[in-house]
């Protein structure tokens, strides 16, 4: 059994081994995914930046932990030695460290190192080019330890445990995570938005726009963005009076017009200049969209809702009832006996139902900058990349729950997670670009499938102690490698570099 942080805190004289012996390394090394990730790390200069703030050993171990979470889809320190056992590593001479060393590293990673990385990472970005940032958040459960930042809040995956919030600012044009925030679970994402805007300003971003989900639509948020001279593009929440009025005014004028058709998303769209709030001086651009498919599904959903409510109300006829609430009273006229509490009849409010059916299929986006409806929807849809980022984080990086004992370890894991997100997102972007150039989209061109296929590129250790490639690169593997500008000769060259590093350690 390996001691954790709490054991070492109470028994400081216990000194567990730092390194694992060379003979503990497998004679069968999976190198394909490592080779690709190494190329992405080199191109992004992540290792160079990390080495500014920590030694080669710690920088290498941090990258190994990030790659471990990507390849193994796990972030538990106790299983890291299993990964190190059969993979090349970024540590000097590919040294393998014990889970006790990993725990110690996580415990002692300093805030100034993570802050330094984020400052350098954002310093290198092109500030002259207009950057649109997709800002979104998620939260994570904490299942162990007394973590100050973990508080009971509005968990997205509620398991009855305290949570902390985690948000990422994502450059939609260049498809790169820029910076992240972690903050207490009781703080909602809308309140945190102002802090994130201040941070963006602090990183030197001036020519900036924010792409925000409907939950951020408020006069306060938009006013704060305006104060910093930033632009915004935001989905309007629900069918607000402004949108309802615009839809009713323009209904029937564009829903079948080929000139207004946006083929990429099977939508029709128009744009109008308007004021969002009554006494607001600035004029904004309201983009109204209509989707046949969305209209059908929303109509069916409403019909089913009315059917369910009608069935419920019919069962209540002749019974004494408490007030039914605004939703039922919106769709039904309720008639009671003389006592005022016994339901006599529930009659459909046909005009209200018909009005809502007429509004099915419509939605709206607001932008501060002048643009067409086509430009606005394409820009908003670029948020899909950041949403995929969060799904990848929880599904494929092992970060749905954090099993940690201290605040220091939590902060270190979140930082490693951010590095992993940068790399995995670049991996995803390269595969996506390759798929767009292919006539067909093979099933192996997804991140999990490509990782699995690359892991089949192996080196084996023979009787002379030398690691050599087991077999040539397959046609499928060549296709995947091509997405990153690599080929079989590059793999052979990297295999020699790996063997050289392992021989140096011996």
Protein topology:
Layout: H1 5-10, E1 28-30, H2 32-44, H3 46-53, H4 56-72, H5 80-85, H6 99-108, H7 111-123, E2 131-142, E3 163-171, E4 176-184, H8 189-202, E5 208-212, H9 219-227, E6 231-235, H10 241-250, E7 261-262, E8 267-274, E9 284-290, H11 292-316, H12 326-331, E10 332-336, E11 343-348, H13 350-358, E12 362-367, H14 373-381, H15 384-396, E13 401-402, H16 407-437, H17 447-454, E14 458-461, E15 467-469, H18 475-482, H19 488-505
Parallel strand pairs: 2-5, 2-13, 5-6
Antiparallel strand pairs: 1-14, 2-3, 3-4, 6-12, 7-8, 8-9, 9-12, 10-11, 14-15
Task: Give a verbal description of the structure.
By secondary structure, the chain is an alpha+beta fold. Among the domains are: 5-115 and 407-424, no CATH class; 294-358, no CATH class. The chain has helices at 5-10, 32-44, 46-53, 56-72, 80-85, 99-108, 111-123, 189-202, 219-227, 241-250, 292-316, 326-331, 350-358, 373-381, 384-396, 407-437, 447-454, 475-482, 488-505; strands at 28-30, 131-142, 163-171, 176-184, 208-212, 231-235, 261-262, 267-274, 284-290, 332-336, 343-348, 362-367, 401-402, 458-461, 467-469. Strands 2, 3, 4, 5, 6, 7, 8, 9, 12 and 13 form a 10-stranded mixed beta sheet that branches. It has a 3-stranded antiparallel beta sheet with strand order 1-14-15. Helix 6 crosses helix 16 and helix 15 (384-396) packs across helix 16. The radius of gyration is 28 Å and the shape is elongated. The two termini are 28 Å apart.
